[in-house]
Automatic annotation (TrEMBL):
Coiled coil: none
NCBIfam families assigned to the protein according to its UniProt record, in alphabetical order: PRK04296.1-2 (NF003297)
Recorded superkingdom: Bacteria
InterPro entries: P-loop_NTPase (IPR027417), Thymidine_kinase (IPR001267)
Protein name per UniProt: Thymidine kinase
Single GO biological process annotation from the record: thymidine metabolic process
One GO CC annotation: cytosol
Reaction it catalyzes: thymidine + ATP = dTMP + ADP + H(+)
Organism: Streptomyces lydicamycinicus
GO molecular function, one term: ATP binding
Enzyme nomenclature, EC number: 2.7.1.21
Gene3D superfamilies: 3.30.60.20, P-loop containing nucleotide triphosphate hydrolases (3.40.50.300)
Residues forming the catalytic site: E87
Length: 221
């Protein structure tokens, strides 16, 4: 039976790499899939991994109807044997419903990949809907690590190397302006729960380690 499968984990756990592996395995057997992505690091209409692998994809716009798009491709003589949707956390809940309809009405496997929670440890709406609807939820076993060496379970956003817990839910790595100072770069880092709660990133940990206040001092003789 066809399934809607949600592969989830933190950043850096190999989600996009697995998506590309599934695409390779199936296409090498003569199957043809529809590949969708959103806000990929490689740019518009790409699915890429941090290992340097990349393939073409359909950029999933805010108003895209996945069911209608697949039906349109089939109606024009195209072939679809499966669907891959990367960065699924950025999709709207109704788009997840459309992917479920692709499984139920068109009898196609749909493989969705995405992170579950944002930098505030809150579920993305798309990920929440996938948890609610998916036939299976698979937590990826490639463990991302916090800077301390513990298993990373949370995604953190940094602005100018300082962790923040407020702001828009979706902000792709960028540079933001500050009226009181120079522009600051937006970045992301995976942390264990302890250091996410303490808002302690690798940069702040290094700063503490290098601070003269915490360096050992000579004993007075």
């Amino acid at each position: 039976m066809p399934e809607l499968v949600f592969f989830s984990g933190t950043m850096d756990c190999g989600k996009s790499t697995l998506a590309l592996q599934i695409e390779h395995n199936r296409s090498s057997r003569g199957l043809q899939g529809m590949i969708y992505s959103r806000n990929d690091r490689a740019g518009h209409g790409k699915l890429s991994s941090r290992l340097g692998l990349v393939t073409e994809a359909v950029e999933a716009a805010d108003d895209m109807d996945f069911y209608a798009h697949v039906v349109g491709h089939l109606s024009s003589g195209g072939r679809v044997d499966y669907v891959i949707a990367d960065e699924a956390q950025f999709l709207a809940p109704e788009q997840i419903d459309q992917l479920a309809r692709v499984v139920d009405d068109l009898e196609l496997d749909v493989f969705a990949f995405g992170i579950s929670t944002d930098f505030r440890s809150k579920l993305f709406p798309g990920s929440q809907r996938l948890v609610e609807l998916a036939d299976r939820v698979e937590v990826l076993q490639v463990e991302a690590l916090c800077w301390c060496g513990a298993r990373a379970t949370h995604n953190a956003r940094t602005v100018g190397n300082r962790m923040v817990v407020e702001g828009a839910q979706v902000v792709v790595g960028d540079v933001v302006g500050d009226a009181d100072g120079p522009p600051a770069e937006v970045g992301y880092e995976v942390l264990c729960r302890r250091h996410h709660r303490r808002r302690q990133t690798s940069a702040s940990a290094r700063a503490v380690a290098l601070s003269p206040d915490v360096l050992p001092v000579d004993h007075v003789r």
